[in-house]
């Protein structure tokens, strides 16, 4: 659970917390620190899932052939871990490319900040559009590089499956070192933000909290993010099924194209949908439908990866047996494929919902008039320097997002969450 909790921490909340403790932590290294801590679960969760079910028979054979413990582990377990690690690294890289909150608070000039500045200050839409295209090209390069590396890693690790996972092993004298390293990570990812929020919340309680506004913002956060997750999974199903069941350039190209949305800044998606709704669909301007569509564009990769992974876990012979018994394709999907793949699909929906709760720029632009979420309230109060008033919303956002983060950390869901 601890490994998944940083997913519930918005990058701008983590950046604010670190700046509270280290006021001079601006610029490149501060941005790298915050984005690394916030996006680390995208890699640790799938890697942990692979290690839990890793086939150690090959490692035992390597040990009998004279390899030492470290060399045997690297030679046999690393190929099994690499596909999951690279898939998680892709999501982490795309998250860093598209993040706005942390770089803005850290005062570090990145594409997302430049695009927002061009629209808000200079109103230079041409410059912002060009920068968005460059950012999309960078995302495409990341996706293509990950796909090439993942294919090679899967071929190398193909022979390392099918055995019985071994029980956990004792670290012996290495246990204190491992615990110390994990403790440092836990303090950096959770301890520092929690302490900062506690201090600011104490100051806020002394001045009073408007509980009705806080409760309403929490309810709107859950409702809007759930609607976005439902639409995103619905759109991801055909792409994930195609990628999970068919190999070839067409399927790979469609899946790769779906990943671009995750790298497009929320403000670019928001402005695009503002233009679209005002000019073509005025009835949808500043509605929950438009906001759900923005979430679907940005977070489709998370759902596609989960659907693909879930479908890949369904044995083909089970589907073939169902067809031999006279079931049609739709019935086979409903009674066999969907039932087996449902945990991974549900994990993808939870991940989309969790990420939508923290989304800021698109929510600010597309939310219905008069509707406030925890993220928008937090940002609006922080923007005017009311850090004490913003603290209850930050704490509530972390608590509300902690439930899907906890569900994602349970065994059996990590693979779908970050694949």
Summarize the structure.
The chain has 419 residues and is mainly alpha-helical.
The CATH homologous superfamily is named MetI-like
Number of helices: 20
In CATH, what is the class?
Mainly Alpha
Radius of gyration over all CA atoms, rounded? 22 Å
CATH architecture, please? Orthogonal Bundle
Low-confidence stretches: 158-163
Order of helices and strands: HHHHHHHHHHHHHHHHHHHH
In total, how many domains does the architecture comprise? Answer: 1
Mean pLDDT: 78
What composes the largest sheet? none
Helices and strands: which structural class? mainly alpha
Overall 3D shape: globular
User: What oligomeric state best describes the polypeptide chains here?
Assistant: single chain
DSSP helix fraction: over 70%
Strand content: under 5%
Beta strands, count: 0
What fold name goes in the CATH topology slot?
MetI-like fold
From the N-terminal CA to the C-terminal CA, the straight-line distance is: 18 Å
């Amino acid at each position: 659970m601890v490994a998944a909790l940083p997913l519930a921490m918005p990058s701008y909340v983590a950046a604010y917390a670190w700046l509270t403790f280290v006021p001079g932590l601006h610029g490149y290294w501060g941005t790298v620190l915050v984005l690394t801590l916030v996006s680390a679960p995208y890699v640790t969760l799938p890697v942990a899932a692979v290690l839990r079910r890793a086939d150690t028979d090959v490692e035992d054979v390597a040990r009998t052939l004279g390899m030492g413990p470290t060399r045997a582990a690297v030679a046999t377990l690393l190929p099994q871990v690499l596909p999951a690690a690279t898939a998680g690294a892709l999501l982490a890289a795309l998250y860093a490319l598209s993040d706005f909150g942390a770089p803005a608070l850290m005062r570090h000039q990145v594409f997302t900040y430049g695009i927002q500045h061009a629209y808000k200050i200079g109103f230079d839409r041409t410059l912002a559009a060009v920068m968005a295209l460059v950012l999309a090209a960078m995302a495409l390069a990341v996706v293509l590089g990950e796909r090439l590396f993942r294919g090679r890693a899967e071929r190398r690790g193909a022979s390392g499956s099918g055995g019985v996972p071994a029980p956990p092993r004792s670290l012996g004298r290495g246990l204190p070192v491992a615990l110390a390293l994990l403790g440092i990570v836990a303090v950096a990812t959770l301890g520092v933000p929690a302490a900062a929020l506690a201090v600011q919340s104490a100051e806020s309680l002394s001045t009073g909290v408007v509980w009705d506004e806080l409760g309403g913002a929490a309810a709107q956060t859950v409702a809007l993010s759930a609607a976005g997750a439902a639409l995103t999974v619905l759109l991801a199903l055909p792409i994930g099924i195609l990628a999970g069941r068919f190999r070839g350039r067409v399927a790979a190209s469609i899946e790769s194209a779906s990943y671009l949305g995750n790298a497009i800044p929320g403000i670019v998606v928001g402005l695009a949908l503002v233009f679209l709704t005002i000019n073509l669909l005025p009835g949808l301007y500043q509605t929950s439908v438009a906001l759900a569509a923005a979430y679907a564009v940005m977070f489709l990769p998370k759902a596609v990866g989960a659907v693909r992974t879930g479908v890949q876990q369904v044995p083909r012979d089970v589907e073939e047996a169902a067809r031999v018994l006279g079931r049609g394709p739709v019935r086979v999907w409903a009674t066999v494929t969907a039932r087996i793949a449902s945990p991974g699909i549900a994990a993808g929906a939870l991940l989309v919902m969790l990420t939508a709760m923290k989304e800021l720029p698109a929510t600010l632009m597309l939310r219905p008039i008069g509707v406030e979420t925890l993220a928008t309230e937090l940002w609006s109060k922080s923007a005017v320097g009311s850090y004490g008033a913003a603290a209850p919303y930050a704490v509530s956002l972390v608590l509300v997002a902690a439930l899907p983060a906890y569900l994602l950390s349970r065994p059996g869901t990590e693979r779908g969450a970050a694949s």
